[in-house]
Amino acid sequence: RMLFPLNTGVSENEISISGIxxxxxxxxxxxxxxxxxxxxxxxxxxxxxxxxxxxHMKASYPTIDNMVRNINFDNYDCIIISDIAPxxxxxxxxxxxxxxxxxxxxxxxxxxxxHDPTNNKFVxxxxxxxxxxxxxxxxxxxxxxxxxxxxxxxINDYDMWEHNDPRSKELNMLYYFYWDLKFKQRFFDxxxxxxxxxxxxxxxxxxxxxxxxxxxxxxxxxxxxGCLISCDEFVNDVCEKLKEEGYEIIFARNPNSKNVSxxxxxxxxxxxxxxxELGIGGGHPYAGxxxxxxxxxxxxxxxxxxxTIYQKYKNARTR
Length: 319
Hints:
six-stranded mixed sheet; five-stranded parallel sheet; 11 helices; 16% strand
């Protein structure tokens, strides 16, 4: 299976695998830095099924650069960064020895600038990071991880916004209920039959979502088919329901973390790329995010995004 094809006489697999196996074996001391969501812990579950000693750290986009800069490289044989990539930091800012210890496995378009297979930096769109890490791990370690296939499928279904299987939304609910360590323990072996308590939890959350949504305050944008909400729970579900009501771009600001989730169905608009171009965030084509600790800066960013979409995408205009 050619996971990393390269149009040269020597396959990229041969180049990368030989280098990877010098720093990564099942007995290596590994630091795994992941994004702080279900796809991130999915990556860690895969790696922990293959490697005996994996330390896990969560990162967000505002914290990832400093986290990489502050790694004590002497403590680890290998650092695997998955489902997230440095925002402004370039790997060549590190020493050559430090950079060689880092394997990057990401799927966000905004991370494509880091793609450098000969130096173990892999960025491939089209599948979740958990899916990418599973393929990578089977290739490097030669393991059959088929028992994790369904778990990977559900994480991929949710994270890539395919939403073909209702269980993927339920699994994501459990991530935010259990959080990382308990979620990892619960689904480590890929067993996905939800128990009685989990089914009761889903029903309780459905009731809570309906109550939140019915009391949600929605602020329409002036010039485009978009809105602003303040929300710290059920963000994805709320955005999907607002989309069904005709909103093409939704800004959901978390009043606690000050992070802003952006969901877009504007035809032709890659919201992750747009946020990156504007220098205020990044993400996927349909789902992006930015950090907005200051209300004035947030309002300025919101106005900039609205103006840019109004100018570039006539189909998104309200008038």
